[in-house]
């Protein structure tokens, strides 16, 4: 039987025990200052009120605000803005989990997200290549191979020059289930994955996506995890052909990496080696804005996703915006938005691969085929 994720403490976070206490809600209720700082940038909180008020209403009537949690992007800008760093997003995640347990957390608008996850772990789209003696895996995630298939395999090839026994796993990290509050499914799927990898001798995970990085760091049960780009040969500078004569660029940090200062530092060091001048946006690193797709909130309407995107694009200032999250690349897509991997392998950029959609599934099948060739 798969071990229960509910009994674990991960980086100070205790997951909601089924049928258990409302500890996070009580913490937010008791300690929220009602100062309004968390709502200054967040239209969701401006609409529904201070986190302390929401927590109080739910504790008084447990049927209140269960579904409200699904309108939160879970981006954690509220925690960054809070004078007491209260876990507001975690509170809304717990409300989602309670909604699922009481059969009030199922929305047809989330079907595409659940399908995306199911496909990512299906036999048709997933593959594991773990050679003998392998203790480190490249985990590119779902979206990156879908929108940058050639660059994904080029990155793997370069990493293998540094780590000759590097394996690769093309699967989903199950973040959709986690963020939608489907915690029992997440626990069953993700922990089974972790257990199997550890049995095969895997100790380290290099992810192509900060969302996968976040999941493995929180729930990887001892697996050491970092972004794959940080392991590249530092003597090899990015090739800036995709930027042309442009002298200045800016960086969009995904909200999943909000509290990862070492990642912010590594990405900026890598971009800096391109020779371009970096112009930071007003909201970057730990104050970054969500791209609009966080937590699946945009799928339920209310305009939260569009407002986040508009806020983000308003700060770009006409520069090329580089991000290192494939999901953000799709959400913020445009002529001035590129993925970090485009700097590394500009010669492999193909316009038809850029924006996801049905073509992304064909691209992932192509990546799976290329991985399969290593097993022969």
From TrEMBL:
Residues 137-215, 249-332 form the Cysteine-rich domain. InterPro entries: 4Fe4S_Fe-S-bd, 4Fe4S_Fe_S_CS, Cys_rich_dom, HdrC_iron-sulfur_subunit, Helical_ferredxn. The keyword Translocase does not apply. GO terms for molecular function: 4 iron, 4 sulfur cluster binding; metal ion binding; oxidoreductase activity. Residues 30-85 form the 4Fe-4S ferredoxin-type domain. Keywords: 4Fe-4S, Iron, Iron-sulfur, Metal-binding, Oxidoreductase. One of its GO terms (cellular component) is plasma membrane. The keyword Calcium does not apply. Pfam families: CCG (PF02754), Fer4_8 (PF13183). PROSITE patterns: 4FE4S_FER_1 (PS00198). Signal peptide: none annotated. This is Fe-S oxidoreductase.
